[in-house]
Design goal:
The chain is α+β, with helices and mostly antiparallel strands and about 180 residues long. Helices cover about 35% and strands about 30% of the residues. The protein has two domains: about 30-80; about 90-180. The longest helix has 25 residues, at about 55-80.
Length: about 180
C-alpha cells in the first residue's frame, strides 16, 4: 500500500447507498450582482426619461451585469441540483444537464490532483466519466472564507477505490492515478 497517496481504500464496502451534495455557496454574491444590475436598469430608465438618449456604453455595461447575474443564478441552481450517489452496484453523478452512471466493474481510472486546499477528482469508466472537487476553503481579504466542493469528498473517493477494485496508485504528471486492476 502506498502510504504517501492522499486517499486509501475504505475499510469496508458499502452496506447501503449514500447521496452526497456539494457545499452551497452563500447567496450574497448573487444578491450583489442582482442589486447592481437593477441599479443599472434604473439608471438606464432615468437617462432615457431625462435625456431621451442612452449611451451605448451604459447599455452594454447593463447587459453585461444582467448576464453576470443570470450566470451566477444558473450556477447556484446547477449546484443545488447536483448529487453524487454511491450505490451498491454503481456510482452516479447527476445534475440538471447530465447523468452519468458507472458500474463498479466498468471503472477504469481515478485521478486526484491538488487544487488549492482540496483535490480535483476525476472518475473514468467505460461509459464516460465525471469530476468533482473535495472540500476546499478559499480565503479572501479581511479573513473572509468560502467553502466549495463536497465535504465528504474523501469518503466518496475511498468508496470508489474499494468498490472499483483499483490497484496501487502511482504519482504522474497530473497527480495521483489509480487504475482498475
Amino acid at each position: 500500500m502506498n502510504d504517501n497517496a492522499p486517499f486509501q481504500p475504505a475499510e469496508s464496502a458499502l452496506v447501503e447507498a449514500n447521496t452526497y451534495r456539494p457545499v452551497s455557496v452563500p447567496v450574497r454574491g448573487e444578491l450583489v450582482a442582482w442589486a447592481v444590475a437593477t441599479a443599472l436598469v434604473a439608471l438606464c430608465a432615468v437617462l432615457i426619461w431625462q435625456t431621451g438618449r442612452l449611451p451605448v456604453w451604459v447599455l452594454l455595461f447593463t447587459a453585461i451585469m444582467l448576464l453576470l447575474a443570470l450566470a451566477i443564478r444558473f450556477s447556484r441552481w446547477m449546484e443545488a441540483h447536483t448529487v453524487i450517489e454511491v450505490g451498491l452496484d454503481a456510482i452516479r453523478y447527476v445534475n440538471p444537464l447530465r447523468k452519468t452512471e458507472l458500474r463498479w466493474a466498468e471503472l477504469k481510472q481515478l485521478t486526484a490532483s491538488r487544487v488549492g486546499s482540496g483535490w480535483m477528482i476525476v472518475v473514468v469508466g467505460d461509459q464516460g466519466g465525471f469530476r468533482f472537487q473535495t472540500a476546499t476553503t478559499l480565503k479572501g481579504t479581511g479573513g473572509n472564507q468560502l467553502r466549495t466542493g463536497y465535504p465528504q469528498g474523501a469518503e466518496i473517493v475511498e468508496q470508489v477505490l474499494i468498490n472499483g477494485g483499483f490497484a496501487e496508485p502511482h504519482y504522474g504528471d497530473s497527480g495521483w492515478i489509480w487504475k482498475a486492476s
